[in-house]
TrEMBL record:
Name of the molecule in the record: SWIM-type domain-containing protein
Entry keywords, A to Z: Metal-binding, Zinc, Zinc-finger
SWIM-type domain: residues covered: 76-113
InterPro entries for the chain: Znf_SWIM
Pfam family of the protein (one): SWIM
Metal-binding in keyword set: yes
UniProt source species: Acer saccharum (Sugar maple)
Transmembrane segments: none
Single annotated GO MF: zinc ion binding
Length: 116
């Protein structure tokens, strides 16, 4: 696995480099079609809208959120005390002072404590 698409495609099509260009293009189409089919079938098996990795990450954060204290500032803004890194959470803007909610676009432990 690589994040470099050119490297991934070169590894995928190294078997067909001796074929004429039409054969190479047909082979690339088959490879891409199988990748998309495999991804689609694995996504259809999911029971939630998040991936398995996202589900596990939310579960771990939710466990941490159980022990946090929440103080209401406004209807959608909260001060969350966790004893280590306190956070100000704004649920309408989807932001937290820990910046995890901002960057990952998944609720941080502070936000999960407020949602709870």
């Amino acid at each position: 696995m690589s994040t470099n698409i050119a490297e991934a495609m070169n590894n995928a099509i190294k078997e067909c480099k001796d074929l004429p260009i039409t054969g190479v293009i047909d082979y690339i189409r088959e490879v891409l079609q199988s990748w998309f089919h495999d991804r689609r079938t694995s996504v259809l098996k999911l029971s939630t809208q998040l991936t398995t990795v996202g589900d596990v990450a939310i579960g771990v954060k939710d466990e941490r959120a159980r022990y946090m204290r929440i103080y209401l500032i406004t209807f959608y803004t909260f001060l969350v005390k966790d004893g280590d890194l306190d956070g100000n959470v704004d649920l309408t803007a989807k932001t937290c002072t820990c910046k995890e909610f901002d960057v990952d676009q998944l609720p941080c432990a502070h936000a999960l404590a407020c949602i709870r």
